[in-house]
Design goal:
about 170 residues; mainly alpha; 7 helices; about 60% helix; about 5% strand
Length: about 170
């Protein structure tokens, strides 16, 4: 399974709204700036989230977006299905279950696909926006891709330096 950019960005929008649940509605400009996401793309995503009943919009000077229901009631599975459709696109997996296999007899890997679908559906279905907002509040906002790259590069450089130091110690001791 691959989480699309569409779902990733949409979930980040929903999470921003969940964190601001008790505040004024958030504008797309505010969300785009805080999440470092392209504003034009967010307009498309929010339209789909509105059609899916996950967000509401308020027009006017103090307008913006809010979650349409409490964050505890919006799972990642619901968000992904709203933005991208089925969790898994394969003959054995329907939108809601793996029981909708269209083959007359289950194939040799049907059981494995069924377990895979059940695992993904369960994990995403039991993870909700309130839980993610709580974790984000405890640890701060997620790192941007640039920061993650710098952290990864620093860790790799440290590992290479340590390997070199160990190599010199081993070679020097011989």
């Amino acid at each position: 399974m691959k989480i699309s950019t569409r779902s990733e960005y949409g979930i980040r929008v929903l999470l921003a709204l969940a964190r601001a649940e008790d505040q004024e509605p958030l504008s797309l400009t505010t969300i785009a700036r805080s999440e470092r996401l392209p504003h034009a793309y967010l307009e498309q995503l929010v339209a789909d989230l509105r059609r899916g009943g996950l967000v509401t919009a308020t027009r006017g000077q103090a307008g913006g977006y809010r979650l349409a229901r409490p964050p505890e009631q919006i799972s990642l599975a619901t968000a992904i299905r709203t933005l991208d459709g089925p969790l898994l696109e394969m003959p054995c997996a329907g939108v809601e279950s793996a029981e909708r296999c269209d083959r007359p007899e289950p194939c040799s890997v049907h059981e494995a696909y069924e377990r895979l679908f059940a695992s993904i559906d369960s994990t995403l279905g039991t993870t909700n926006l309130a839980e993610l907002a709580e974790k984000a509040a405890a640890g701060g906002p997620p790192y941007s891709p640039d920061v993650r790259r710098r952290i990864r590069a620093a860790a790799e450089a440290t590992a290479i330096a340590q390997a070199g130091a160990q190599s010199q110690t081993v070679n020097g001791a011989s």
